[in-house]
Design goal:
The protein contains six helices and no strands. The protein is mainly α. Helix 4 packs antiparallel against helix 5.
Length: 128
Amino acid sequence: MASMIEQIRDAVKKNQNDLNNIPYSSLISALNVALQEHKRMQKVIDKLPFMPYGFDSWVDTYTVVTDFIKCHDEGEIAQARKQPNDIEALRKLAYRWTTEYESKNRKKQFNYDAIEAFCYRKLKGQEK
């Protein structure tokens, strides 16, 4: 099947302005292959221990955590900013907090306020 996808890619390169030359059945086949691969990878990602609810949930939480970190400069955040490689230290902090929140809040619906409250507790040393 990969060769079919390569054939379609090549056809698209040759006919960038005229996709009508690509047979409909070839496009459908390629889309089905891509969809199956996406589903297979999603199953793998969803089983990762640091992403108990899957990639999308982890990324949503990570976004809230990084936004929180950008707006504060005390506690662990201030310590991370003092590191020689502060960007990496802040990234690791956001990764750790995100993974911890995701692990502790299994089966809960995404809640921006709950994630932010968790970050405040981490910042104040109230969340272990």
